[in-house]
């Protein structure tokens, strides 16, 4: 399972989320007509959440945990109120009774939320970030990038290392509850009581309000749509078999944080029926036309995945998604998106990697979906 680390501004906030079993990012400066790129990025992160993923909380260089996302009505993510995925503000008095979190007008800023419980408990004792990173240095990649982000997603290996570190730090109280926050099921019960499909989280309105002249204004909105498709295993698109997704993965972890490059979507899938990784996924997105530099950029990310994760080019499947793919870009792909590698000894086997797919996207106004078409299949 994957894991999420949420950044909190105070210990009081930690107490509140731990006891209610609900986390929601607060959206400030909500635009009136369309979502901003940071808002769309937050939506994309929520769309990848799955029942069973672990959750942790970060405050003043300490990580607190451990929780686990839990489904209510077959979902662990919800709109805080019907229409929360549409930009613009509304009157608290008019929708208070329809809101899941409705203590005050400030809760109008909480558009998406996720539900969780302690796993085994939400411990009051946090673990210093330096202690976490030194506990299993080779396992932590994404955690090192937790800086000025509302939350990040970590993969299964990193999650297991973090889970072990937090649990060991709280071993003396793991069978007792004196050092843990006490869960109150009130909010979860409210979700059960008022839930309808109007609280369902999808990418439709994210894409709808980013559309302009049949094109999408922000790459982050396209990311949200792709992650939605992948996370829900939509069999009608080429991405439907992928299981876990992280978006905005840091691809240059040793550079100063302000200069890090970011690939758009990074994920992996298992061999069916087993917890063994079969393939790694890389998607580079361009809201407009791709160019020949896009190929070089994608190959840089592919090389990084091979070095840091797969250690085998054959385990990487890569995509460029753009509004238009020219013949020039296809030619560049065919010439440059190639890697030769050697496996085994006595005798060594030389193989060739050519697995970069070129995809054009179109916006379908009838159903508020993005549709995809592969150009010049490999």
TrEMBL record:
Q: Name the InterPro entries on file.
A: tRNA_endonuc-like_dom_sf (IPR011856)
Q: State the organism named in the record.
A: Oceanobacillus locisalsi
From the Swiss-Prot or TrEMBL record, give the protein name: EVE domain-containing protein
